[in-house]
Specification:
The chain is an alpha/beta fold. The chain has helices at residues 11-22, 34-37, 40-54, 60-68, 76-80, 94-107, 123-126, 161-173, 190-206, 212-223, 229-236, 239-245, 251-264, and strands spanning 3-7, 26-30, 70-73, 85-88, 113-116, 136-141, 150-154, 177-181. The protein is built from 13 helices and 8 strands. The longest helix has 17 residues, at 190-206. The mean pLDDT is 96.
């Protein structure tokens, strides 16, 4: 699978695009408007600096070659025209994902394999909206994919086992360590562990127990961890926890989503990738 199309160029979508191109894949980056896509060169510059900082074998020449393998378009039919595999990284809303896959199903070639990068939603909740559910599954990435390079592969009961293995091999080809999830699990392995931790930090903040900085400080000093929950929120970006919390049955999660919207998202403080989140970054 040489030709990859990524739907969504946000924090994680852009990382999947860049990492795949860095690994030698030809990548089409799709988003809803040319205005959104016009911001990608700035994002590539940010990622180039990160790769040079974090990867011993990264060179300017390799990074420039990666960018040359990326093509951006806001035309969905064009984006899908020769895709061997599509990875969807649109907002974490079941309705948005279902609508996206209905459109993709109508346009993609028969050869195309479909993968969602959903953080918490089950493939079986989206599969009915795909016209080839046997070729649909989840491929989930951790944030900062060039360093934290897990690729969690999770099918639904109707996923073809050979497609499952093809996607696991693809994950390895783009530098991920494939983690085979043997049954559907909301949050896979990673987020089944991470989300309760982040929710606990958010609850302490919402209830006024301590500031984000002091919550992070407590966790790091007491456990030796390099990051606290709010530093992790900044890496993930504000949009994902906002979408996860805004319609939650839990009033604390809803209030946290409201705080994110009012005090951070509406003020352009979208997380580390934007330079500002709970913390400010150079």
């Amino acid at each position: 699978m040489q030709n990859l199309t990524v739907l969504g160029t946000g924090v994680l979508g852009s990382q999947i695009i860049f990492q795949s191109a860095y690994a030698g894949k030809d990548v089409v980056a799709y988003d809803l408007s040319d205005e959104i896509l016009a911001k990608l060169p700035e994002r590539w510059d940010y990622l180039k600096a990160a790769y040079l900082r974090d990867l011993p074998d990264a060179t300017a020449e390799k990074l420039d070659a990666a960018v040359s393998r990326i093509r951006a378009t806001s035309d969905l039919a064009d984006a899908l025209s020769d895709a061997d595999i599509v990875i969807e990284a649109v907002p974490e809303s079941l309705e948005i994902k279902q609508q996206t896959w209905e459109k993709v199903s109508a346009l993609a070639p028969e050869k195309t394999i479909f993968a969602t990068n959903s953080s918490t939603l089950l493939p079986s909740a989206i599969a009915p909206f795909v016209d080839r559910s046997a070729k649909f599954l989840a491929l989930h990435f951790a944030n900062e994919v060039w360093k934290f390079n897990t690729g969690e592969v999770m099918g639904h009961p109707g996923t073809d086992p050979e497609v499952f293995e093809q996607v696991a091999r693809f994950a390895e080809e783009i530098g991920m360590v494939p983690i085979r999830i043997m049954k559907e699990q909301p949050g896979y392995v990673l987020n089944s562990l991470l989300v309760p931790f982040l929710d606990a930090g958010a609850a302490l903040f919402v209830k006024g127990v301590a500031t984000p900085a002091d919550i992070d400080k407590t966790w790091k000093i007491a456990t030796g961890s390099p990051s606290g929950p709010f530093e992790i929120f900044d890496v993930v970006g504000m949009m994902t926890p906002y979408y996860l919390g805004k319609d939650s049955a839990d009033p604390v999660k809803r209030e946290f989503a409201e705080i994110l919207k009012r005090d951070y998202i509406d003020r352009g403080r979208l997380g580390k990738g934007s330079g500002h989140g709970f913390y400010d970054y150079e």
